[in-house]
Structures are given as C-alpha cells and as structure tokens.
C-alpha cells in the first residue's frame, strides 16, 4: 500500500503538517473533509462514500473518523513514506497534522512514552485492502523514531525482517490479492523506559492450512513453496530431491502457473534467507524448515489405489521413501500409517485398513498438520529471538499491532469465514465499548453532560456464536464429540432446533416463505453487524475436528527432524484426552486477545480496497459501500458524532482564530478560556452550537467550524498585507543599519590595512637598500649573504637588460657588456642565442637558397685553402645555367629529345675542349644530369661525348687561378680516346655540381705539381705543363705538351 496527498495537501508536506488540519478545510470542495466527523450529513452513507471518493481521486488515501484512520489502497507508489515525512510527524499532536498512518503511530508512541500506557494499533480490512503494508509502515515509523544504539538497531532489524519471513510462510496469492495474509497476526513491540525498542513477541491466529492441499482456481499455495523451487542453489534442491520441472500435486491443483511474472519468487527467496539470518536461525534450523517444506511437496505426490476389498495401497513406494528420508523416519512405518488406522479403546488396540478416500484424507491431514505446526514453531522461534534480556522486563511498555483478516463475505462461505467474521464481531464489540468509554471519560473530564448514544450492540451476535452450551461453537463441538457418525447436516439440524427463536439466525427450516429460495437446505445465515452472511455447513465438522490419526502422530514423533520432533511430542500420544476442537481453540485464543487489547489504549486503522482489479485510479462505489458497511464505519461515525463534531483546547483554538476578533488580536493576555468566550461572542455563535468545557471548546455542527475557517481564510489577506508592511519596514531598516555599520567597519579596517601595508613597504625598502649598499661595497671580497644578494641582483638586472637589447640579426655580432659575475653566463648565452638565430634563419630558408648553401658548403669543403681562385667565388651565387640566352632553346629541345626518362638536367655551361693529340681548342657545352655528363657541339647541340657518372674515375684541377679541368675516364672506354681536357671559366662551380651529382667528394684531386699526366687511347700518356706567366693562357708548347700559363 502506497499513498499520497492532493495538490492542496501535498504541497510542502513538511511545513504543511505543522499548520494544522483546519487549514485543509479550505480545499474541502475538491478534496473533501479530512475527518468524517465534519460531514454535515454524517448519517448519509452516500455522503460518506462521496467524501472518500473525492479524496481518493486527489491521491489522498487517509481520512479520520475521530481517532480512527480510514485508509484506501491506491495500488500505486506515491512518495509520502520517506524518513523526512516521518520526522515531520514526530512530537506533534494527532490533530495538528493531516491524516497519515505516521500520525496514528506517532500518537500511540508518544502516549506510550510520556503517559506510560501500553498501546495497540488494530488494523482490519478485507484481503487486498493494504493491511500488511500498513503494518510495515508502522514498523518503519517506529524504526526511524526510536534510538540508534547497536542493541536497538538489532531489535529493529529483527522486527522489520520478521515481516517478509512470515509473509513467505503465511501469505499466498488469491484472486483478490497477490500477497494475501492467510493468518491473523498480533505483534507486541517492547520498549524500555526511555522509548527504545528492546524486543517483541508474536501471536498467530487461524492459519488457513487447508490451502496447503487445495487452492481455489486462480490462486496459489503459500509463497514459500514457489520460492524454494525457484532457488538458484542447485545443491539445496538436489539435497531436497526437488526440481522446478517436476509436477507437484499440491501446487498444480491450481490453475495458476508455478511461474508468476508478477511475483519475483527468486528475489523473495533471497530476502527470506537474509531474514532467517537476521532472526538468527541456525543453518541446521533453516535446513530443517526447507526439509519439511520439501517433504510436504513430495507427500502431495503420494498416490493411492484400491483393491477389490476396498483397501488402499500406495502407488509409488519411491515417493514415500523420499518423504521418509526427508523426515528422517522409517518408510515402512510411514507407509503403514498412511494405509491403516489404529484405534485404542479401553486399552485394546484395533488396526483397520483405510479405503482410498480415507487414505488421501490422512495424507492431506498430515501435510496440513506438518505445515501448521511448523508455522507455529517458526512464530515461537521468532519470539525467542526477539525476547528482551531478563533485567529489562520490569521496566517495559508494549505497543501491539493487530493485523487480522477483515470481515469476509464470499459467494461460498465456509468454516474459515465463520471464524474470521466471529473475530470481527468481537473486535467491533471491543471498539464500540472502548470508543463510548473514551467519549464518556472526555465528557466527564470537561464537565459536559453525557447524552446516551443509540447504537447497535453486537453482543447478541457474539453470544449467538460463543455462548456456553447454547452458542454455535458449543453446538458444533457437541456434534463433533457425540458417539456415532457425525455429519454437517446433523450440526445444521441442531442449530435449527436450538436457535429457532434467535432473530439473527436463519436456516432453511425456519426461514420465511419468501426466503426459501435464497437459503439452500445445507446452508444457514447469520445477521452480522455488517450484514447478512450465508454459510455452507459442508466441511464444518471435519475442519472443526481437525483430527490427525494416531498412527501418523506416532510416526512424526519418531522422526529425527528437529522441528517435527519438537511439535509432535510423546506427551500427545500419552494423553487420553480428546484434542480440543479448532473452533474452541480459536474462541479461547480470541478471548485471550480481547483480554490483551482491553488493557491497552487502542488506535484503529480501517483499510478499504477500492476495486477488485488491483488497479490504480479505479473507485468501485458498490465494492467500497460493501466494505464501509461490514467494517462498521457508519456506526463508528454515528457514535463519534453523537455529541460534538469538533473539539480543541482553548489555547490551540484561540491561537488559530484570534485574528477574527479585535478583542483577542494581536494578543490576548488573559485566560485562554476567556479569550475563546470573547471570540465566540464576537462571531455570534448560538448557544446550542457549542459548549465550553474545562479545557476545551466543543463545536456541535461542522457548518459552524466551516464558517469560522472560511472567515479566517478571508482574514488571511488582511493579515498578510499587514505582515508584509511591517516586515518590509523592519527588513529595510535592519538592512540599512546593517549596511551602515558594515561600511564603517570596512572603512576602519581598510584604513588600518593600508597604513600597515605602507609601513611594511617602507621598512622593507630601507632594509633592502641597506643590504644592497653593503653588498656593493664588499662585492669583490669574501662571499657573504649581503654581497651574494647584490651579485644576484646584478645578475637579474643584467638578464633583464640583456632581454631588451638582444641582436636583431644573425650578422649582428654585437653583444651587451656584462658585469664581472656574469661573464661565463654571458658567453654561454651568446653562443646559445647565436645558435637559436641560426636555427631560425635556416628554418626560414627557401628550397632554392638552401640548395645554394648546400652547394657552397660542398665547394668550401672541396676548395677552401686548396685552390687560389676559391676566394673570388665564394660570395658569388652558383647558377644552374651558364649558357648564353641564344642557346636556351637548344638546351630545352635537348632535354626533351635526348634525356632518357628519369634523367634530369642539373647544370650546364660553356667550355673549351682540347684534343688529346694536337691540343686544338673546340667550343663546346657541358651538361650535367643526375645520371651522366654530356658534351655537345655548341652549334648544333650534337652529342660529342656522353659519360655516365659511374664511369668517371677522377676529376683533376690545379691549385692555381686557371680554369683547367681534367676528367679521367677508364681506359676501356675506347670511344672517348682518353681523358677529357676542358677549360671552364667557372671551374669551381662546375666541379661542385659534378661532385654533388656523383655523391663522391673524394673523386676530386687538386694537383700541386707543375706536370699533370693524362691518358690517351692506346695506353699512351700526354702531359699538361703548368707554368707561371704574365697572363692566363692555354696552348701547345714547344715540347708538344699542353701549356697552361697562370699568373
């Protein structure tokens, strides 16, 4: 069950709670009234349901009937159950807050803590109305409200975890509710003297054990069976001989598939396991529980056949062997107990075989008994885990929570519905008695005359059911215990005879003629306080007897399972007394519960289911009307409204409404009672509309309260304007004074700060100047702190000066002067800076310039300090083409037609070639490519010589200023008739390009001798003679040698 509030009540819940429930009256036309007592037409059932529907449609599920909380299940999550919401309801009065289950819980807790009175909260309603969720919210509220010590936290965790554990074993899916409680539960939460939880105890009532063996269409068995079969622990299932794929008779008698998409059995089993650990169930105890659950599933699969004599026998011995193994008993004894019955009469033992029907009855009875007693053992085990330590018992108070089935009216009502409705009759009787008693006590305390209330006293119905020797339970026990064959019809006849004059009992034999068709012969009708209910007598006698054959008890008492050994005792076999009937046991436990409840101050939560579809937003008026009737809500309202609809203490009433009277506004300094009297006089209350008690004002009619509240809502506008004016004036002046004072303080501190800062600066400046002066004087002496500081400062100043006066160009070699202390650093910095400038210069070079520099560097390596003409060429850029302009077209055509693919022209120039014999000069052009050297006729550009770069063995030049170039080629190249003798005006440039193309710098030889030999074809040699002269010249000498004259 989740809940919420309307826009009127939901906005600002934390602050709205403290504003009082009267403030919600302004939205009563939309959201209805928060307390049914304030209904004008309180006797109208239609008005009651209309108010309930208004609140439900605006997501307000809680409404009061005085101290009773009515809760409608919204079937959706509405976030009003947080810890923050719980804190808003803490330490406030019940009527200071909008309706909420936390308000009921907090009021009960505060009364327990402050007044030292035991409390109980009674939760009732039909299946699916939200009773279990309501009890969870109560436990959640208590857990948040109470202390935080380790012991308290441990107890609270056990209390919270007891719920999922009991739900697994006591709840099941029904057609009305996916998590329906199939047992009644009363929980006592034990508190110490300071209000902390220190323990708890549980009582369970009327577990629907018939569900173990049979479920109605569309329903499931108890959750634990499906949870266990859904377990992911394969070893556990193997040890229990279980499989999710196996057919289990006790589960598949239901139409519902074992796998339910709306129920998370796998996740819930993990929750149950954790709860068992928190409750401190040992591993052995947990195993014993799961073993019993598994044995019941296997027991359901035990089938019987019948021979020609009518004797039953077990069909599958292996199944009974599995059951016996799980129960740790003898399989033969268990088989005998299921097939035969032993009766002991006057000391004699008689064993008779069972027919198939009785054998199946014995099997089912055993399954139900095992489960029922295991459940009772589990509750007792929970109690032992929750029991406080002995020394705390003397100073404890308890708060009980009763989560019990509501009034039930089905299409077919049987023994279970009879017991449930009997329980609700007892609770209604207790409620009327306690409510009237509470009303009478309040009237007496306040000195107001008590007016007797007319109400239906259901004691006559309780007596009809439970009266000794005359009631229905006594007649049922009489039928069950009489000698001979007992029957349900015999029980019905007894009732028809003994209750013939009772106006709340109707059977076919005493019904009027008009009702004969409505009541079959095997049914009877009781006129309960909530309406007429017709019960079928079929099964009453068997369910009341609840017998388990002696043979089966003997077998179960001999088992080694720790739980069955504890719940099936030898004393049970030794006792000659017939076991008490189920109805008598329930009557006794119910009367004990009434004794417990009558000693406590009760609070009530009435839960209502809005529809049977379990869907949010649907309000089935007929279904709700039916529940309003059988919950006795109209009766509750009538009792509450017998006197006055509204009551409040004088101080609370005056505090809220004092603004409506000039005599009480803004403050009333006298007795609050006198102030309320003045207020009522000003509002012109009629004397019959209200009454003045000793501490409270009592208002009889809701319209009087509504009129007062509406006037207050109108007055709020004037009050808001007045408050705004006063507040704005106060806030503005307060803000001005605050700003003025802040400005003065800021000025004071700023002036102080500035003065202190100036003083520190002057002091620091003097110290710095003194140190610098001393350092300057001693700068050339022994190192001291002062002169090192001065030197450091001079270095810093130098670096700063240097940063602003660095050379702008690479060719600028100027460098700022430095002090003595910075000389070494200055040299390093100069070198680094020059390197950086050079790097930047290189980075900015174009490819053409870079090529020039590469060639110039190569020329420098080849000729510097080796050839005299080098110094005259290193400042002149090299050119790729030295041919006259008129030859450029021939060069282009030659490139296009004569160069092979991949061959690229790198350099060309005019040269003079000398023959090897007569040394006659020839004008030629020299072309250097990346693969060869071409010597062509300058006139027609015909190829005269073509040498691949690989064929050149050596380049020879002189060290003088001449342009001689000797290209040595291998002797085997006969076509070229020996080495080439060339004269080139730009010999250094030409050789540099050739060496760059060959990529072999060592191919160059600079001759320092006056005679240079050269090869001629046929292995002969010629001589080149280098002589000094007045001018440069080439020619054949008298000796027949080539003479090169240099100056």
UniProtKB/TrEMBL annotation:
Its main location: membrane. The keyword Nucleotide-binding applies. Coiled coil: none annotated. Pfam families: Myosin_head, Myosin_TH1. It is a peripheral membrane protein. CDD domains: MYSc_Myo1. Gene3D superfamilies: 1.10.10.820, 1.20.5.190, 1.20.58.530, 6.20.240.20, Kinesin motor domain, Myosin VI head, motor domain, U50 subdomain. Residues 32-713 form the Myosin motor domain. It is found in: Endomembrane system. GO terms for biological process: actin filament organization; actin filament-based movement; determination of left/right symmetry; endocytosis; imaginal disc-derived male genitalia morphogenesis; mesoderm development. ATP binds at residues 125-132. One of its GO terms (cellular component) is endomembrane system. GO terms for molecular function: actin filament binding; ATP binding; microfilament motor activity; phosphatidylinositol-4,5-bisphosphate binding. Residues 590-612 are annotated as: Actin-binding. Keywords: Actin-binding, ATP-binding, Lipid-binding, Motor protein, Myosin, Nucleotide-binding. The keyword ATP-binding applies. SMART domains: MYSc (SM00242). Residues 867-1047 form the TH1 domain. Belongs to the TRAFAC class myosin-kinesin ATPase superfamily. Myosin family. This is Myosin motor domain-containing protein.
